[in-house]
Request: fold
Amino acid sequence: MKGRSVILDRLGGCKAAALMVDGRLDDLLVDPPDDRPAPGAIFRAVVDRQVKGQGGVFLRLPEGRAFLRQAKGLRPGQGLLVQVTGYAEEGKAAPVTPRLLFKGRYAIVTPDAPGLNVSRSVRDDAERDRLLEIAHDAMAGAVDHLGVILRSACAGVDAAAIAGDIAVMRGLAEDILGEPSEGAAELLLDAPDAHTRAWRDWAEADPDEVIDRPGGFSDTGVREAIDALAGPAPLPGGGRLFVEPTRALVAVDVNTGPDTSPAAGLKANIAAARALPRLLRLRGLAGQVVIDFAPMPKKDRTSLEQVLKSALRGDPVETTLVGWSPLGHAELTRKRERLPLADILPA
Reply:
């Protein structure tokens, strides 16, 4: 299977979408198996109580709670429009923000952030000018506090398609912002499902084919690739990469295998650094990630960091390399945009 293929199916009874690139599973989106708040959902929440020492407040949702960081000047009982930014850890409140974003395939409408902007990935000046003109026309007459960001997927796309996407996102924003902030807790906009997210987030470049049928995962090798995620990932030269989630963190261990040469550690570590973002993405793992790289000279850390940072830049999930611990472990923090795959698949 050559090129980019998007396969829409179900996994564990939930809607799911897989992105195959040249026959290899590159990304996987799966809906939660329950009604927990998902990233992108917008609520009218009600302020519950301030949390001293944490600089935030708990909010009441129609079901469950949310937590808003760095919140000031809010009173108990006050209504507030918020958007879910990630999945809650077990027993914790869902993280939310008052800075709403309305994301489409080509455009992101930004309340309280006026202006017309184009992704920096679009470098051709003539194309940037064309896109800004489309955005200017599509946002004509919008209220002053609405802005728009044109995504990199816009490059070379027909003007009517881009303008239509802006119009849909603008309409959603105006409808939601027109809702009263005061009142009972209420869901105002549901999170996009896995099939919608695949259409929205895998637009660059457009897939060569879209397969939408029951059993599509089995027919295209997706199911087999998912099953292979349960064990260690092989590395060139016979090494292996272990990714093991615990309650506190995700532990990663790099094994060089049978290669005992002086350069074996660095070679295995570079291969692991390139492979790790994909494995974390497919397994839906996030939070604190601690990597126990194979032994190597300390002077090689800089080159390994460059490889790891380059790999992380190509990953859609926000991840930060925090640094090295005194024990020589690399430490990452990763946003909880997805649920662990193990929590979705039937046991």
